[in-house]
Design goal:
alpha+beta, 6-stranded antiparallel beta sheet, 4-stranded mixed beta sheet, 12 strands
């Protein structure tokens, strides 16, 4: 349902543009996150391979409806606009790594709710965090392997910001590095790596991304309609997905999942948005 448009400034955005995969890129306002419209579909959620965990099982077919998702992770540039407008209360720290087009970090799930509420008021459309099912559907982009690019972690540095040789020079007491080099010790500007087949960037690596769901330790009795799982479980903890700059590629798998306190934050935690139809 379309919301009553607020009296917030919403500069006119450019029209829809077609992506190379048949997707559409668009913005509601010239200064709001770029979105990719995805058709709904059915996919197998989770992973049963040797690299999977009990958190990612049992496998089940899930059907998601059409939705639009951020082409990139929310940036400092976008977050700072919300802060200046009074919609976001936290002037979050960038750790000295830079702001602008780098993904916003040190934001909690609660902080992210402020941003999507402000965005909804600004645009007159319903924005929210992705559901966990929507996130994995978007991350896989029609693939069924460990990673959206295939099975091999050796390709990680071409497709994701992982903890690599450059990172290990800055954090010499960390011992789980990938043996490739993506040239970034910490966060990278969004869109620095190859997108998946649906034109989405950084679904693997850069920062972990909050989703809407409460934490459940496995998928037993999980919803199959793509909605957020917010009954039962531990709702003081919320799921995050995708792995971050400080992680080994095994955390970048499409099925990999973790959770943290909804009020917790770190320099490897961010989010992207969904806009309902």
């Amino acid at each position: 349902m379309k919301l009553q448009k607020a009296t917030l400034d919403c500069p006119e955005a450019p029209p829809f543009t077609a992506g190379t995969t048949g997707t559409f890129h668009f913005r509601d306002c010239a200064d709001t996150p770029e979105l990719v419209r995805l058709l709904g579909g059915t996919f197998v959620m989770g992973e049963s391979g040797t690299t999977g965990t009990l958190y990612e099982r049992p496998l089940r077919e899930v059907t998601v409806s059409e939705f639009s998702i951020g082409r990139y992770e929310v940036t400092f540039e976008e977050w700072d606009a919300c802060y200046r407008a009074g919609g976001c209360l936290k002037n979050t720290e960038d750790e000295g790594w830079g702001r602008g087009r780098r993904p916003v970090i040190n934001v909690s799930w609660v902080d992210a709710q402020q941003y999507v509420h402000w965005l909804s008021e600004k645009t007159g459309h319903k924005y929210r965090l992705p559901t966990e099912a929507e996130w994995e559907y978007a991350a896989r982009a029609g693939s069924s392997g460990r990673y959206y690019w295939g099975e091999g972690a050796e390709w990680a540095c071409e497709s994701a910001n992982v903890f690599d040789l450059t990172g290990s020079l800055q954090h010499q007491n960390w011992h789980w590095r990938a043996t490739c080099d993506d040239r970034f010790a910490e966060t990278a500007p969004v869109g620095s790596f190859r997108p998946n087949k649906w034109g989405l960037y950084d679904m693997s690596g850069n920062v972990w991304e909050w989703v809407q769901d409460c934490w459940h330790s496995d998928y037993t009795n999980g919803p199959v309609n793509g909605e957020a799982w917010i009954s039962g479980g531990e709702c003081g903890k919320r799921v995050n997905r995708g792995g971050g700059w400080g992680n080994h590629p095994r955390s970048m798998r499409s099925a990999s999942r973790d959770a943290d306190s909804a009020e917790g934050f770190s320099n490897a935690m961010g989010f992207r948005v969904v806009r309902e139809r």
